[in-house]
């Protein structure tokens, strides 16, 4: 697949279904190599995507892209480190980090929410983003930047 992101490597957390799957597919369509990460490789049942029986990385490959899957909990530092390391090992570098993984424990008010629900939500939705940024930026600082390509019709007036 050729596109604007050809030669770039992306990690997408929460890539097995929903928005994460759509993001991973879009990045692949633009030519990025995609590391799909989630707790489970299989999509959650009941989603709106077509081809739910085909895993995201397999669907990318079927469409001519390059992708791999690594199981990881976005709220665990060692898992996020492993995802970044896997991207670099398989594709040589990391250029894009999409911290998409997120959870929802249902609608309830603060009085009814348990401390366990709060901790779970914050660990995935906040700490998971922080960990993703931390380890992606650590990798970005270790590697040579890719030269920016000119953007046609970008609206800059000289």
Structural account:
With about 160 residues, the protein is α/β, with parallel strands linked by helices. The protein has one domain (about 10-140): NAD(P)-binding Rossmann-like Domain (Rossmann fold, 3-Layer(aba) Sandwich), CATH 3.40.50.720. The chain is about 40% helix and about 10% strand. It has four helices and four strands; from the N terminus they run βαβαβαβα. It has a four-stranded parallel sheet, sandwiched between helices. Helix 2 (about 55-60) links the parallel strand 2 (about 35-40) and strand 3 (about 65-70). Helix 1 (about 20-30) runs parallel beside helix 2 (about 55-60) and helix 3 (about 75-90) runs parallel beside helix 4. The protein starts with 8 loop residues before the first strand and ends in a 16-residue tail after the last helix. The mean pLDDT is about 90.
User: Helical amount among residues, as a percent range?
Assistant: 25-40%
Structural class: alpha/beta
Biggest sheet: strand arrangement:
3-2-1-4
N→C terminal distance? 34 Å
CATH superfamily: NAD(P)-binding Rossmann-like Domain
The H-and-E topology, N to C, reads as EHEHEHEH
Identify the overall geometry. globular
Averaged pLDDT, please? 92
Please count the helical segments: 4
Beta-strand segment tally: 4
How many domains, as an integer?
1
Provide the low-confidence segments as ranges. none
- Here the CATH topology equals Rossmann fold
CATH architecture, please?
Answer: 3-Layer(aba) Sandwich
Q: State the CATH class.
A: Alpha Beta
Radius of gyration: 17 Å
In what range is the share of β-strand residues?
Answer: 5-15%
Largest β-sheet summary: 4 strands, parallel
């Amino acid at each position: 697949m050729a596109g604007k992101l050809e030669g770039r490597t992306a990690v997408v957390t929460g890539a097995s279904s929903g928005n994460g799957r759509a993001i991973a597919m879009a990045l692949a369509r633009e030519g990025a190599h995609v590391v799909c990460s989630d707790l489970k490789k299989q999509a959650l049942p009941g989603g709106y995507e077509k081809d739910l029986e085909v895993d995201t990385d397999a669907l990318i490959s079927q469409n001519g892209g390059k992708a791999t899957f690594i199981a990881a909990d976005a709220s665990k530092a060692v898992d996020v480190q492993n995802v970044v390391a896997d991207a670099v090992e398989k594709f040589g570098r990391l250029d894009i980090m999409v911290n998409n993984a997120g959870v929802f424990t249902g609608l309830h008010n603060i009085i009814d929410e348990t401390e366990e629900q709060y901790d779970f939500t914050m660990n995935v939705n906040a700490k998971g983003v922080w960990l993703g940024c931390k380890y992606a930026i650590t990798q970005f600082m270790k590697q040579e930047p890719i030269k920016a390509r000119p953007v046609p019709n970008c609206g800059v007036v000289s």
